Amino acid sequence: MKFLAFCLTLFFFAGCNKSDYIPVHGGGGGSKEKIIGTVYLFDDLANDAPDSNMTVTIDGTAFTTTTDSSGKYSFKDVPAGTYNLTYSKPGYGTYRLDTFHVVYNSNDTPAVVPAKALGTLSTTTVTDLFISVEGDTIKIIPTINPAGNEIIARGVRFFYGADESVTGTDFLSYSKQFRLKKDSDPIKVSKTDFYDAGFSPGATIYVRVYGDAIFSNDYIDLTTGKSIFPNLNPTTVASKSFVLP
Q1: Model pLDDT for residues 42-56, shown as the tens digit of each residue
Q2: What is the C-alpha separation between 191 and 195, in angstroms, rounded?
Q3: Which CATH class is domain 125-243?
Q4: Pairing state of beta strands 32-42 and 116-119?
Q5: β-strands 111-112, 227-228: how paired?
Q6: How do residues 109-148 score in pLDDT, each as one tens digit?
Q7: Three-class DSSP category at 230
Q8: With 0-12 CB in 10 A as exposed, 13-18 as middle and 19+ as buried, what is 23?
């Protein structure tokens, strides 16, 4: 039910891009404004979790608050400017929303932060990894614990690099999130997907797999331009390699 509410809220922000870099308008016409927002919290399998007690901070300022039982939060008397917001709660990967603009108009309405659905750290560990090349297809087979099932799948994500030290924070490319409905399942990736990611035929590519929460809390770090995945489970196995056809 909460996920449906989030989707309906998201509909009204359909023009936002993935990182929510949008201007919003405060009200009152004065030098300071009110900011309001909502978070919807879930566990790593997308089940409802309590929406309260998530800390929301405006970076570089003294403004900090926590969400109420409905996931709502607010700030008062925020000067006009451009801000970064950080969302944190024990058990959740820290999420960051960059470049939130607070400007003014003549309406006595608050600046509204787009609603966010955030999840807990993944409880899915990777216990084995096998890779084979079959023609133009690379078959990646992770084994996870606990296993997913037909009702609730568990998320995994692949990270690719040029050497065995590839990790979820040091990589050249990454996959979408895949959902496993059992403890091990082959995932087929076309060689053209690796070409599109910038790899060349004959390259040795190393793969590392992590369990990832259904809500990844992922965002783009504007300083480095890299994607950040805060909810990865660090318990995994060593990377494996293959030669790209």
Answers
A1: 999 999 999 999 999
A2: 6
A3: mainly beta
A4: parallel
A5: unpaired
A6: 788 999 999 999 999 999 999 999 999 999 999 999 999 9
A7: coil
A8: exposed
Residues of the chain with CATH 2.60.40.10: 125-243
Q: Do the beta carbons of residue 97 and residue 21 sit within 8 Å?
A: no
The angle subtended at Cα 13 by Cα 7 and Cα 17, nearest 5°, is 105
d(CA 181, CA 70): 31
Per DSSP, helices labelled H in 76-228 are: 191-196
CATH of 2-119, one of 2.60.40.1120, 2.60.120.260, 1.10.10.10, 2.40.160.40: 2.60.40.1120
Q: Which amino acid is at 80?
A: A
Q: What is the DSSP letter of 186?
A: -
Residues 6+ positions from 228 with CB-CB distance below 8 Å: 96, 169, 218, 219, 220, 221
Check if the beta carbon of residue 121 is closer than 8 Å to that of residue 213: yes
Q: What is the pLDDT of residue 80?
A: 83
Q: What amino acid is encoded at 175 in this protein?
A: S
Structure tokens at 93: 């990967």
Question: Sorting pLDDT into bands at 50, 70 and 90, what band is 28?
Answer: very low
Give me the phi and psi of 190, to 5 degrees please. -70, 150
DSSP 112-130: EPPPEEEEBPP-PEEEEEE
